[in-house]
Amino acid sequence: MFRPDGSLLPHHLCPMADVLRTGVSVREQEVHIERPDGSRGIALVDIEAIKDSQGYVIGAVNCFQDITERKRNEVTALRLAAIVESSDDAIVSTDFDGNVTSWNGGAERIFGYLAAEVIGKSITILIPPNSQKEEEVILERIRRGQRVEHYESVRQRKDRSLVDVSLTISPLRNAQGKVIGASKIARDITERKRSEAQIVNLAREAEHRTKNILSTVQATVRRSHANTCDDLKEVIEGRISALSQVHALFVESRWEGAELHRLVMQELSAYSGQGEARVRIDGPSVMLEPSTAQVTAIFLHELATNAAKYGSLSVAAGHVEIAWSIAADRRLSLRWIESGGPTVTPPTHSGFGTSIVENMIGYLRGEVRFDWRAKGLTCEVALPLV
Predict the structure, then answer these.
(1) Does the residue 200 lie in any domain?
(2) Angle of helix 290-309 versus helix 190-222 axis, rounded to 10
(3) Is residue 327 a contact partner of residue 367, using CB atoms and an 8 Å limit?
(4) Up-side HSE of residue 167: CA atoms within 13 Å toward CB?
């Protein structure tokens, strides 16, 4: 024999020895026994002392009751109860009338009711008014002994807020196998549903942005002109590169837009490192939404390209000043001022670069003005901000 903790129980300390020594009977004392084949079991021992007519102990009767299976079932039940109680899922049982018979901690966390508040009450308190017939269908299937496979639904918390749940419902049977109610497991899938909705929204947004990007590229290519194929290729590559760079800023801001100072620095980076006075930038921080930022990137690219070929950035002594301000009516006023370059001669006709800037600014209901002064080009742009 062994004690419940597994330690060896010597014969002189076993329950029978105690009864023979003391004459005090033993009732339902648990011992672990080892059989001849080495297997072990659990028994309850009841030992009754046998006494003679003078009251002296002359023996004892030992009754062993094998409770191995019962103990195993008790351990299993305790483990299951611990699992149920510690589960993050709501695990609830009801009778055939839909009244709650058990309610775990997960149910308290998800639905907000304490067990004492719901046990004995109808499970329909969790079902929104427009879904009450759902429980009738479930109970009818349970009465037929059918399992209700996993499905998604909506339930109502104690505070009347709604929660998305994933449900699995099974018949609850007694020891004889008779269906006596329903066992329900509900998992809170609010975060999953929110993530799914976010993915759908992001996919739609990505589709919209992709179409917008392609439309912008298509419009840029369509409006690009040059005297030779090589010149046209260079023009298109430059403009698409400008769009690519501004889209890198969109990614950083999670498509909120592009900060104007960074956008200007990005487009003029090839020249700003050639001396501190080469490019001067001044203006408040302002986030341009994507459409406005794309147009701004294109016209800055056009102005910088023109300045590098013919204007102030074509000579070492020249420089460019870019300054902007925001009016009370949320209009952006941006000035591009060149100085120190070759003497400027006003063009006799509008060039391809000038036309594309005017067209794109006009598309955003903005205004642009070119002033071809002898000491350098000045370009003033006014754009409405969203």
Answers:
(1) yes
(2) 30
(3) no
(4) 22
248 has pLDDT over 50:
yes
Structural domain of 133: 87-188
Radius of gyration of the chain from Cα atoms? Answer: 42
Residues 140 and 37 in one domain: no
* 328 and 221 part of one domain: yes
- CATH number of the domain residue 258 falls in: 3.30.565.10
Same domain, 175 and 246: no
Which long-range contacts does 217-224 make (Cβ < 8 Å, 24+ apart)? 217/243, 219/360, 220/298, 220/356, 223/355, 223/356, 223/359, 223/360, 224/352, 224/356
pLDDT band at 364 (very low <50, low <70, confident <90, very high): confident
End-to-end CA distance of the chain: 86
Predicted local confidence at residue 274, as pLDDT: 52
What average pLDDT does the chain have? 87
Beta strands in 96-239 (DSSP E): 100-103, 148-156, 162-173, 179-188
Selection from 225, 264, 226, 227 nearest residue 242 by Cα: 264
- Cα–Cα distance for residue pair 65/165, rounded to 1 Å: 47
* Domain endpoint, select from 147, 167, 188: 188
Within 10 angstroms of residue 329's Cβ, the number of other Cβ atoms is: 7
CA distance 93 to 171: 10
Domain membership flag for residue 350: yes
Token pair 């969109």 in the structure block, residue: 250
pLDDT greater than 60 at residue 123 = yes
Tally of domains within the chain: 3
Asked if residue 375 and residue 261 are part of one domain, the reply reads yes
Report the CATH number that the domain containing residue 132 is assigned in CATH.
3.30.450.20
Burial class of 85 by CB neighbour count within 10 A (0 to 12, 13 to 18, 19+) = exposed
